[in-house]
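Lecture notes, continued. The same structure-token format from the folding unit now serves as the input rather than the output. Read the line below as a description of shape only.
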């Protein structure tokens, strides 16, 4: 499995402590750059599929975010670094203006990696000036945007790892990811042997879900609201590679009765026969591509890089189901689940939809989450690549059901007898 990335819950900072927030901002910027530091300019330019973005694009886009939403409107005398960067590095904010097509980001040989580094430095320096110079009224306006920008950049840190892993896997040389990762990443570790999972029962009833704290949360985690749950049970840990291997060995990728219609179409179209990054040798053994290169399959590790369709089919094969996101959140808050965080994102059976009473923010930032609330499935928890501050029981990750390049696994659920 890939390296064990920091996943501790972020310590809350006093919103009035500007020095602490400047240091927090600088720390996050340094981590992003450390993740890219071991990659060559050629590595940073590759785009192995339309959903993947080149590393250098991530480095530029996260700078564009601060420049567009904070520096241009709030730092007196600030001039945009380059007039074309708004077009090149806007991701999906229609209200901000036109943008370069996402599937063509890998065609951007210019600006160079070196030019983007200069851009990042300029934005970072200007942001530190803004944090220090803003009057009290301006600080109250920019603080929520600063905090959002920091968490936005952390999301792109995980995307950098997801995307470069896919890009390296597309290379027949199967390069190793050998960046000097600094404090963001520990040395390569494997989890301890996992015991046979137990079923943990929950009584259900009228429960509350959604974020209710006083620290940062994304708008899609709110508002907190009540929902009804029937009694249910969850497996004490995620599904392992060995368990998923039994699913493969039973011919399940050739059994249409196990699959949703769209899922069966996907495995036929894409010729899936195992999770992404798994490879079978001519002798029949399995190996897995990781950020450290190819490695023998470790059956005790959690299975990773499976789509919702594969997770759902596995659950059906076992005579179980996937949990709803409400079931997962209530269970995670109880502290009863092993490896709820920091191992793999866990598919739920819940469609990504707005909570009752949800209202997107006004303006361009209202496009951050709300516009994607269709044709997506919610994942809960966090992965080994998720930065600190993103391990919350209420956090709602989401991807299309066919997506597999994210660090996604599953945990089984069932109704109580």
């Amino acid at each position: 499995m890939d390296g064990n990335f920091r996943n501790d819950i972020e310590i809350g900072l006093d919103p009035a402590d500007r020095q602490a927030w400047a240091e927090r901002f600088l720390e996050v910027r340094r981590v992003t750059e450390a993740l890219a530091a071991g990659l060559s300019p050629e590595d940073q330019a590759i785009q192995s599929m339309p959903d993947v973005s080149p590393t250098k694009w991530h480095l530029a886009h996260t700078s564009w975010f601060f420049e567009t939403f904070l520096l241009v409107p709030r730092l007196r005398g600030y001039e945009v670094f380059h007039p074309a960067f708004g077009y090149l590095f806007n991701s999906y904010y229609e209200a901000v203006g036109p943008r370069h097509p996402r599937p063509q980001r890998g065609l951007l040989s210019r600006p160079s990696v070196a030019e983007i580094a200069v851009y990042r430095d300029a934005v970072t320096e200007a942001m530190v000036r803004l944090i220090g110079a803003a009057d009290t009224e301006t600080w109250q306006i920019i603080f929520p945007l600063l905090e959002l920008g920091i968490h936005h950049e952390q999301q792109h840190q995980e995307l950098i790892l997801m995307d470069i892993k896919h890009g390296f896997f597309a290379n027949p040389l199967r390069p190793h990811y050998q960046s000097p990762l600094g404090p963001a990443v520990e040395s390569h570790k494997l989890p301890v042997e996992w015991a046979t999972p137990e079923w943990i029962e929950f009584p259900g009833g009228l429960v509350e879900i959604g974020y209710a704290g006083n620290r940062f949360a994304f708008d899609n985690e709110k508002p907190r609201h009540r929902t009804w749950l029937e009694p249910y049970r969850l497996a004490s840990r995620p599904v392992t590679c060995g368990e998923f291997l039994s699913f493969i060995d039973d011919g399940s990728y050739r059994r249409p009765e196990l699959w949703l219609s769209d899922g069966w179409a996907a495995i036929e179209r894409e010729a899936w026969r195992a999770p992404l990054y798994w490879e079978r040798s001519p002798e029949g053994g399995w190996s897995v591509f990781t950020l450290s290169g190819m490695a023998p399959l470790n059956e005790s590790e959690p299975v990773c890089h499976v789509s919702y369709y594969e997770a759902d089919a596995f659950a059906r094969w076992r005579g179980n189901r996937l949990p709803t996101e409400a079931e997962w959140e209530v269970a995670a808050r109880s502290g009863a689940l092993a490896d709820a965080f920091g191992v793999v994102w866990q598919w739920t059976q819940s469609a990504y939809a707005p909570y009752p009473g949800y209202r997107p923010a006004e303006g361009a930032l209202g496009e951050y989450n709300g516009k994607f609330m269709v044709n997506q499935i919610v994942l809960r928890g966090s992965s080994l690549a998720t930065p600190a501050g993103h391990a919350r029981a209420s956090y709602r990750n989401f991807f299309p059901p066919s997506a597999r390049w994210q660090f996604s696994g599953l945990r089984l659920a069932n109704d109580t007898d």
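Point for the exam: The chain has a mean pLDDT of 91.
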